[in-house]
Structure formats: structure tokens, C-alpha cells
Amino acid sequence: MISTRVSRLIGIFALIALVIFVGIFPVGIAPNDAVNTIAVFTLIGAIAVVGWNIFSGYTGYISLGHAVFYGFGAYTFGLACLYWHIPGGWEPFLLLPITGLVAGAFAFPLGWISLRTQRHTFIVISIAWVFIFQLLAYNLKGFTGGSSGVFMPLTPWVAPYADLPFYYIAFIILLIAVFVSWWIRHSKFGLGLLAIRDDEDRALGLGVKTNAFKLTAYVISAFFVAMAGAIFAYYVGSVYPEQGFNPAVDLTIVLMGFLGGVGTVAGPLVGALFVTPFQQWLDLQFGGQGVNLVIYGALFLVIILLLPRGIVPSLQEKWRNWKEARQTRLADRTRNLNKEPSSALAERGGEG
Amino acid sequence: MMLLEVQAVSKAFGGIQALSTCSIAVEQGTITGLIGPNGSGKTTLFNVITGYEKVDSGTILLNGKSITNSKPDVVFSLGIGRTFQLTRIFPHLTVLENMHIAARREHLNELFSRWSSTHEQRQALELLDLVNLLSHKDDLAGNLSYGQKKLLEFALILVARPQMILLDEPAGGVNPTMINEIRRYIRTLNQQKGITFLVVEHNMEFVMKLCDTVNVLHRGTTIAGGPPSVVRTNPAVLDAYLGA
User: Fold this and answer.
1) Is A267 exposed, middle or buried (0-12, 13-18, 19+ CB in 10 A)?
2) Partner of A230 for a Cys bridge, out of A99, A136, A214, B55, CB 3.0 to 4.6 A?
3) Nearest CB to B115; choose among A191, A208, A209
4) CA nearest to A54, candidates A303, A253, A275
5) How far B210 CA lies from chain A's nearest CA (Å)?
6) A300-351: pLDDT as tens digits
7) Average pLDDT value over all residues in chain A
8) Over the stretch B40-92, which tens digit does the pLDDT of each residue have?
9) Nearest CB to A205: which of B72, B90, B116?
10) Rounded to a whole number, what is the distance in Å from the CA of A259 to chain B's nearest CA?
11) Would you state the pLDDT for residue B99?
């Protein structure tokens, strides 16, 4: 039987192999620049969904409004570069933690208000934030540039290396986000969040400070989603209201979460790996007519119907069932072996 | 010494008066029963004590200090745990993870430490062993049988070392063998750890064999109280139950 220690070692080696693979992908494996571009978008999407999962996945409060923080990140980044006259290059990347902190500061009052509601009402409120802030971004022209948006500083990098800084920065932020997500999942705080997901009232009755827990998770979640938004804006070169506070971003994030498996550490990563390249292909093929959004919606329904728990939890269940069946088989075999000597004795006795 | 005192508590839901100047007192270290016909206000009384419902009037004291209308997490941190009529565990978490939900979180560093490496882990495993669920520690709690869920709900409260546990129909829907086991656990914890119990139960045999004192509720008011042998012959109690 595979011991827990051995399976843990296998897991660690697999993780190291994966990190090495992703690390060398753009320089040694990717066939061309277009693939690198998709890889950058995949990493950005992965940061956003891992961040989203820290709140929505662990607490069960499905937020369809995290695009607000994506937009906050993008605008904070662009405006900081603009007003502080930061030139393009590596320097703007130092602003990423600041964009996260600004979004976290905004998430505090937004969360405090919206988390007074539960479940379905919360989903509606979360969507409302996106449109409110999109309208604000349109109308606060003196600050946000209105519909023209904000242009990011031009980067000095040229092809074929132009994508690499974004790729590696996004990769580092993703590693941090996954580590934080993993840490939370295995902490008492994370256990409290999962208890909220299962039965919030019961969790409260067992001493879990549910309001404080939810709000903290919401703020942490906003921190990472904002950094994803900032990297995205810097990568594409600008941010404008429709793109920054974009409900389609929420749909994509939720799609990635549900496909991979919400409430797990690995699930959102798996979801991002599938959804982002597919999304890029769809945008390329059908983006002009908006058919891509129809296909997203249909895909979302198919996932909910066929894989309601997502890929990773479904695989985990299969693994658990396989282990249980194996243990039962081993127990049966041991029982049979123990029986054999006595039956052999009985047979001998019968002969005598 | 009185551990819990409910003094003239009233609670109405619209036009329905669930509790009407209801008073009970629970002495420390005892097992107290709370019986009454359906709709007499037993579960509402549990809800107001544990902060799930707010009282309209009256006072609830724990160790002489008011806990009236305190929130459920505060009541729990003060040492009162409870179970529910319909078992409420966390079905998508493992049995062991369930045990850690109720563990105290007093400091911030504790909150962000790994739950499996805390000192509660040993205690959680011991408690699971006590209720014969140790072999199920890695199973999802939702996959347990109904009786096992009852035992898990009971055990997970114990992780927080409560002074008092309110049990809402612990024997409800459980087979006779399991009922005896539950009774044995309650008695053991009462005698060995000094935990005070307030038990709501319809199974009269269970209540009469287990409890030191029994309070009877009828239409939201306490109509009788005392040792089981006295209560079972009280004419007001017979009247309430038989409707004579």
C-alpha cells in the first residue's frame, strides 16, 4: 500500500517538475511568440482565479463582482505610472503590491456592505459593484480619462523577448498566490472559511467569527485579483472602463473555478489552464460577433451539469474510492489467509 | 451553585408566543432534562440561550453574568455548546476537520497556523476514539450514518472544552444500541470531566434514566421541575402530556 509519506513525496516531486516546466516553457518549449502570449494570459487568469477562490471557493459565496478589483488594479497601476511619471520597463512591476493594497483597502468597505447579505443576494450585489465602478470610471473623466482610459508606459522590450518579463512576473505572483491559498486551506482560518461554506450558522455557533473571516478572505482575494488586473493592463498597454470593469472577466474567472473545482488549491489552476487558451482561441475566432460570450455561457452550463464539483474534486473522489476499494480487498485477502490454516487443520483432522 | 439561569424569558414569533416568562435553572455538574409536548418551546429556549434567537424580555445568566442576546460565537466562547434536533455537521469536510472547527482561536498566529499541527490534534483523535469514530477520521462527514453523525456532532463540541452542553434530542432517530452508547458518553463526561448537560428529549425512558433533574415546559412556560420520580407523577405534567 502506498503510504501517506510516499504519496506526499510524489506530490512534492510532481510540483517541483511542474514549476520547472512552467519556468522554462517560454524559452525552451513554446514554439512561437503567439503561444507565449497565450501563456501570459493563462498565468494572469490563474492569478485571478486563485485569488477569487480564496474567498468564493472557500466560503461558498460566489462573487460575480471580482472584476471590480481587476479594474482597481489596472487603474491604480496606470494612474500611478501616469501621475508619478514612471517609465516603462521593470520599475512599474514594483507597483504591483501597491495595486493589491489599494484594491484591498477598497474591498474592505465593499465587503463590509455586501457581506451583510447572503448567497443569492450577495451574488446580485457583487454584480452591481462592477457596473457602478464601470460608470464611475466613465464619468470621472478628469481622473480616469473617461472612455479613452489610461495608457500604460511603453516597455523597452522587443520581440521575441517582449513577453518574457510579463511571463515571469506573473509566474512569481502566481506562485505566491498559490502558496497563500495553500496556507489558508490548511490553517484554522481556512477551516473556518470551509465551515462557513457548509453551514454558516452552525460555524458561528461553534465560535467561528464568520463576519470577520469572510471579510478577511474577501480582502486577501481582492489583493491578488487586483495584481492580475494590473499585469494585464500593463501587458495590453491600456485600460478603459469597459475592459477594466468587465463582467466577462467575472464569467471567465467563475468558469475557470468551476471547471477546475472551487474550494481546492489545485482546481482553479487546472481551470485556468483549460479555459484561458480556449478563451483566446474563441476570441480570435468569434470575438468580433460576441459569439464567444454565448459559447462561454453554454460551456458554463455544461460544466455545472456534467461536472458540478469540477475536475479536481471529481478526481479526488475517484482516488479516494480507489484507495478504499484497495483497502477492502487487502483486508479480505488478509482475512482469507488467516482462515486458511484453521481450515487446513480441520481438513487434516477429518482425515485422521 | 447555579451555572445557567433563565429568568422570565419571553419570545414571540408574530402572533405565536413561543416562550412566556419561562424560567429554569441548571445547577453546575448536573444532567438536567427539559421535556414537554411538541411546540412547548424547548428548541426556542435552546435557541435563545445559545444566541440563535433574541429574547423579547427576560434575562439569561451564565455563572451569574448576563449572556442575554449575546451572539452564538460569544455564547460558545463562554463555554456553552449545543447540538441540534437535525444533526448539523460539516458534510464536505472530513471527520477530523470537523473536530477542529470548534477548536478555540484566541490568537492571530493560532488562526493562521496549520490546524493539523496544533495541540488540539491529539485531543481530537482521543475524542474520536471515545466515540468510536477514529477509523473514520479521513472520511467525509457527510458519508457517515445518522447515528455516527450524532456522535460526531457531540464530539466536536467537546474539543472546545465547554462547561455546559445543550443536547437537542440526542436519542432522536437513533437505534436502541446507539441510544445506550450516547447515554453512557453523557454520563462519563458528566462524571469525569464535570460537564453540565441540559437535555431536550422525547424518549422518556432515556430522560428518566439519565437526568438528575427534569423541567417540564408547556406552552412556553415551566410547569414543573424536580427529580424524575417526582415529575413523572405530577398531575400538571400528566395533564399537559395527555391533554386531560
Assistant:
1) buried
2) A99
3) A191
4) A253
5) 26
6) 788 778 877 788 888 877 787 787 788 888 888 888 877 766 555 555 554 4
7) 87
8) 899 999 999 999 999 999 999 999 999 999 999 999 999 999 999 888 999 99
9) B72
10) 18
11) 92
Pairwise CB contact (< 8 Å): A210 & B88: no
Q: What is the distance between the terminal CA atoms of chain A, rounded to a whole angstrom? A: 41
pLDDT score, position A19: 84
Q: Which of A257, A254, A251, A267 is nearest to A315 (CA)?
A: A267
| Cα angle, residue B214 at apex, residues B209 and B218 outer, rounded to 5° | 130
pLDDT bracket for residue A218 (50, 70, 90)? very high
Backbone phi, then psi, for B20, in 5-degree steps? -130, 105
Which of B51, B91, B111 is nearest residue A187 as measured by Cβ atoms? B111
CB A174 within 8 A of CB A49: no
Question: What are the C-alpha distances in Å from B3 to residues A148, A327, B198?
Answer: 68, 48, 11
Closest B-chain CA to A194? B93
Element (H, E) at A302: helix A291-306
**pTM, entire model:** 0.87
Q: Do B82 and A205 touch (CB under 8 A)?
A: yes
State the pLDDT confidence band at A200, using cuts at 50, 70 and 90. Answer: very high
Contact A205 B50 (CB under 8 A): yes
A188/B contact by beta carbon, under 8 A: yes
ipTM of the complex: 0.88
Nearest to B160 among A207, A210, A263 (CB): A207
Q: What is the average per-residue pLDDT within A212-235?
A: 96
Chain B residues within 8 Å of chain A (Cβ atoms)? 50-52, 71-73, 75-77, 81-82, 84, 88-93, 97, 100-105, 110-116, 118, 156-157, 160
3-state secondary structure A307-336: CCCCHHHHHHHHHHHHHHHHHHHHHHHHHH
Check whether A116 has a pLDDT greater than 60. Answer: yes
All cell numbers assigned to B10: 419571553
Determine phi and psi for B203, rounding to 5 degrees: -75, 100
Nearest of A146, A154, A150 to residue A83 by alpha carbon: A150
From the CA of A274, how many Å to the nearest CA of chain B? 26
